[in-house]
Design goal:
By secondary structure, the protein is α+β, with helices and mostly antiparallel strands. It is built from 23 helices and 16 strands.
């Protein structure tokens, strides 16, 4: 897996970034608006850097660089609001090089002397249409029926007209202008169509750069501006939407990267992924600039402030092709109706989302285990929660070294890297086996190994590692929820050194099945709440422990557990007295930025199956309708987004790329998408989805109910949004 640029690409990106920082400043952007939205000097400078030759084939005297390279330029152009039809010109020069016959014009376009752009619609059907850069274009490459043509645009045909962002768009009567046929027939039309697909990816990355810069400006302002005596960045009404938006912005970029990777790998879904990337980026940009303006308040509405430039360009750039929702519908047809797409040549793509051979090996091992050891009768009782626990299968997984995959080898685990762990989770999901027992056991075992006494390791850790005992977590309490450091369940040390545990723990999932609970207890009521806590292992079969069931509408059981003078020896304490926070942190190394992509994908597959079964009026099935295809495509995009965000978290941890709250991003973002999509797919497949009938309907039904818990347990979305805002965007702390 790789999310890094090559050294050459990083140098190229920095070169373009420096140039645009100097030559596409806000002052230059404003000046260009006053002269038709085109900065001729900047354009010439980009030409000198080779921008317009990047995608021209080498046989046409171009640089022959990949689509990814051009995307790096577009991201910087978006960040700096470059004034001119850059994405369109990159595509047009490539088309001229591919189709041939216009070497003189191509040379002029590459040198920046002339501007060549593209038309989005068939001139035979729409002779008069809006063209990006039409106000300054010397020529337009377009489709006209069965031909690809070059339309020469004289100066008197370019009529300036006020528009949303003062960009150099113009409505041109292309049908009335001189045309030259560049190519005819299937191959020529496919070449032109591939250019339109390339434009979608380039505009996606431009919008990603624009959005990231707009959000950065808003976050910086929120950390400087005070209202009511505090920085406005401490207001969660401002910071939490920013946390959502940074996930969306990164997802749009990664969707474009994924589409390029899919093109290079020959994946069938590449065409749909292109459409989804453009749709996703347009929506994310619109939402980002809207919130940025809101953050700046009244000043953001003024033409004196730069943020309004980002707001208007966010809409102006993609809308030249029409309604972005059309791309979502197009993706639906490509995914579920067999519509073909003509794809551009991606060239070299440095990013890689393959989890690797070790990951595939562990998946094969897991599938072989279930095929050999698990019966259909056992599968019938599988469930995503603790209620699906099967002690026989768990013991067999332990013996096969397939239970404690994340746990380091020195503790007795498999010691897999994050990529293989992610792959293993996917394989377990495919088998229908969710494993909270093993996941919690790994965490508890690691803490016992690092902080436990020899006696505790012998009496408890050995049993956990052999699969003969399982553990629960005792963090949350009725009065503190996700704020685990506010725990009030107390542990009082006795004269003989032993401890008495008194209090209540909430959401002690599995306590009705487990042997031990890892508990965070208050041992010094007078100390600050983060410092007066200690960690213990407490036997759940001990005298004084009461387990009371709490049932959820997710078909799972959790528990409230009561502790009344439960005595444990001091040897069952973990770490220093009042050092519970540091002890608990030892488990964080097992966090690999998981998220819920695997359950989102399973839900989508069931929804597709169900749509294939549901009849519609007039004949056919629901899957044949544009409505279903569009909404399934939206969920598909969100599944990919969740995967990419989680992969980034994996990759940054493996390669030590720093902590930008990537793990919380993966968990929060995927759980929120899961709940949104589960609700929508429940609606789409109604009333069949109301049934708990075995099969796809039951799965969609359960997914809707399951999704609600994912935004709460493991840390609520609100807590994670605060972490993302603080670590990912540098906003001031919004939690006491």
């Amino acid at each position: 897996m790789n999310f890094d640029l090559t050294d050459e690409q990083e140098m190229m990106r920095e070169t373009f970034a420096r140039f645009l920082d100097d030559n596409s400043t806000p002052a230059r952007v404003r000046a260009a608006q006053d002269t038709g939205g085109f900065d001729a000097e900047m354009w010439a400078g980009l030409a000198e850097l080779g921008a317009f030759a990047m995608r021209v084939p080498e046989e046409a005297d171009g640089m022959g660089l990949g689509l990814f390279d051009a995307g790096l330029l577009m991201e910087e152009a978006g960040r700096t609001l470059a004034s001119g039809p850059l994405a369109e010109a990159l595509v047009a020069t490539r088309l001229l090089g591919l189709l041939g016959g216009q070497s003189e014009l191509l040379e002029s376009a590459v040198s920046g002397e002339k501007v060549v752009t593209i038309a989005m619609q068939d001139v035979a059907e729409f002779p008069s249409q809006w063209v990006a850069g039409g106000l300054v274009a010397d020529a337009v490459v377009a489709r006209k029926g069965d031909d690809v043509v070059l339309v020469t645009v004289p100066a008197d045909a370019r009529v300036a007209e006020a528009n949303l962002a003062s960009t150099p768009i113009a409505e041109l009567d292309l049908g009335a202008l001189e045309t030259t046929v560049l190519g005819s027939g299937t191959d020529a039309l496919a070449t032109f169509a591939s250019g339109i697909e390339e434009w979608k990816l380039l505009i996606t990355l431009a919008l990603s750069g624009l959005s990231r810069q707009a959000l950065t400006m808003a976050a910086e302002y929120a950390g400087e501006r005070k209202a009511f005596g505090v920085f406005i960045g401490t207001f969660q009404a401002l910071s939490h939407p920013m946390a959502d938006l940074i996930c969306e912005i990164d997802s749009a970029k990664f969707l474009a990267w994924k589409a390029m990777r899919s093109i290079a790998d020959g994946e069938a879904a590449a065409g749909a992924q292109i459409s989804l990337a453009a749709w996703y980026a347009a929506g994310a940009a619109g939402r980002t600039v809207r919130h940025a303006v809101q953050t700046f308040g009244g000043i953001g509405l003024t033409t004196e402030h730069d943020i309004h430039l980002y707001n208007l360009r966010a809409k102006a750039w993609p809308l030249i092709a029409g309604d972005p929702e059309d791309w979502l519908a197009e993706a639906g047809r490509r995914l579920y109706a067999g519509e073909a797409a003509s794809l551009p040549d991606a060239g070299e793509v440095p990013v890689e989302f393959d989890l690797g051979e070790d990951a595939r090996a562990i998946q094969r091992e897991i599938h072989e285990f279930f095929a050999k050891n698990v019966t259909d009768e056992q599968r019938e009782k599988f469930h995503f929660s603790w209620e699906g626990h099967n002690p026989v299968i768990h013991k067999q997984l332990v013996q096969a070294n397939l239970a404690y995959l994340q746990l380091p080898k020195d503790v007795g685990g498999r010691g897999l890297d994050p990529y293989a762990v992610t792959a293993a989770r996917d394989a377990f999901e495919e088998e229908g086996w969710n494993n909270p027992v093993a996941n919690v056991a790994q965490m508890v075992a690691l803490i016992m190994y690092r902080f436990g006494t020899d006696e505790l390791k012998q009496e408890v850790l050995s049993k956990v590692m052999s699969g003969d005992a399982i553990c629960s977590l005792g963090y949350s309490e009725p009065g503190c929820g996700s704020d685990v450091f506010a725990a009030q369940c107390k542990a009082t040390q006795q004269d003989d050194g032993s401890w008495l545990i008194d209090g209540t723990k909430m959401w002690t999932s599995g306590a009705n099945l487990t042997d031990y609970v890892l508990m965070l207890c208050r041992t010094d009521p007078d100390a600050p709440k983060h410092k007066g806590l200690t960690m213990f292992i407490v036997p759940l079969k001990a005298e004084g422990v009461t387990v009371q069931a709490v049932h959820t509408f997710m078909d799972e059981r959790t528990n409230v557990t009561f502790y009344d003078n439960v005595r444990i020896p001091d040897t069952w304490r973990l770490g220093a007295i009042n050092g519970g926070g540091r002890t608990m942190a030892a488990s964080l190394e097992l966090e690999h930025g998981g998220g819920f992509a695997k359950v989102q994908r399973a839900m989508l597959e069931s929804a597709v199956e169900l749509c294939g079964d549901i009849p519609v009026a007039g004949g056919g099935k629901l899957i044949d309708t544009a409505k279903a295809q569009t909404r399934l495509a939206r969920t598909y995009a969100n599944v990919l987004a969740s995967e990419m965000i989680a992969y980034r978290a994996n990759w940054t941890q493996v390669h030590g790329k720093g902590n930008g709250a990537y793990g919380p991003m993966a968990k929060m973002f995927s759980s929120e998408l899961f709940i949104t999509d589960s609700r929508d797919l429940l609606d789409l497949t109604a009333p069949y989805s109301l049934s708990k009938r075995k099969g796809a309907a039951d799965h969609v039904n359960l997914a809707y109910r399951h999704a609600h818990g994912t935004t709460i347990y493991g840390g609520t979305s609100q807590v994670h949004r605060s972490m993302i805002a603080e670590k990912g965007l540098g906003l001031p702390r919004s939690r006491n």
